[in-house]
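We treat protein structure as text, and this decision shapes the records that our systems exchange. Such a record has a labelled line for the sequence and another for the backbone structure tokens. The record that follows is passed on verbatim for readers who wish to inspect the format:
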Amino acid sequence: MRPYRLALLSPIAALVAVVALGWGGPASGEPVAPPSPTAVPAPCANPAPGGHVLHLTAQGLPRVALLHVPRGARRGQRLPLVVAFSGAASTGERFQDESGLSARADRSRFLVVYPTAYGSRPFWNMNGHVAGKPDDVAFTRSLLDAVEGAACVDANRVYATGVSNGGGMAARVGCDVADRFAAIAPVAGGYGSLPPCRPSRPLPVLEIHGTGDHVVPYEGKDPDGSGNVLDYLAMWRSHDRCTGRAARKSSEGVERMAWTSCADGTAVEHLRLDGIRHGWPGPGVPEAPVSAADEVWRFFARHTRRP
């Protein structure tokens, strides 16, 4: 594991108090200032390039995430943000090493935050029904607030990705936090146990999956094919009101499918990796014909949230 400088970001302290205590606004009877007629973004400052540990309290529980600030980021420059959910029993720090996303962020200049799921054996509560686990959809909203309070984030260019259990979590926030994200890209995700998806708006989606995945099989799990990747893509084509057939392009070991005639400039895209096992294509699965970090960022870079 390569060395990484860690520091606590001072702007988090005030935000943690708000999240932990649930402060909402002025006390009863206090005058409320009229809203400003023009919304002006508050000044912001990016921390020094490198890694920073974020400590926050959400739902009364201590949580931690690793924020990577890219090299070359200017002090007041608002940058895109990628939320990267690690797999089961992994951590944000480990996923940073396995994904290659921080190296890609340094080249393309975006922020990456790697949260760690709660508990001694971290596992994202992606379906909301895991006993003893917190509401990770609510945590994601708190995390976004924390990062936006600690760094210069372009709120219209916030994205989510993840692998395995983290891929399922990225899929979940695409359904339940569509108001905050510009696009999602689950990788090798499990979709069979997710609750019904009711996004507040159309959302661009990229899905990457290997046909040799025996953990979350491409064609779903027996006996009913629950979690079938093509069914997941069909669901999003319906939400995004896509029309027409997919544009297809095949090269050695990978088939690309793209539905681009969709509502509000969205798209649904898929990379089908022939025979590739479960995991994040790249450092974690070096035999894969593509780098997930590169593919995910190329997709994100084409999409901006429309307020």
Notes: The beta strands are 50-58, 61-69, 79-85, 111-115, 153-163, 183-187, 205-210, 247-251, 254-259, 268-273. The first strand starts at residue 50 and ends at 58. Residues 1-38 have pLDDT under 50 and may be disordered. The two ends are 40 Å apart (CA to CA).
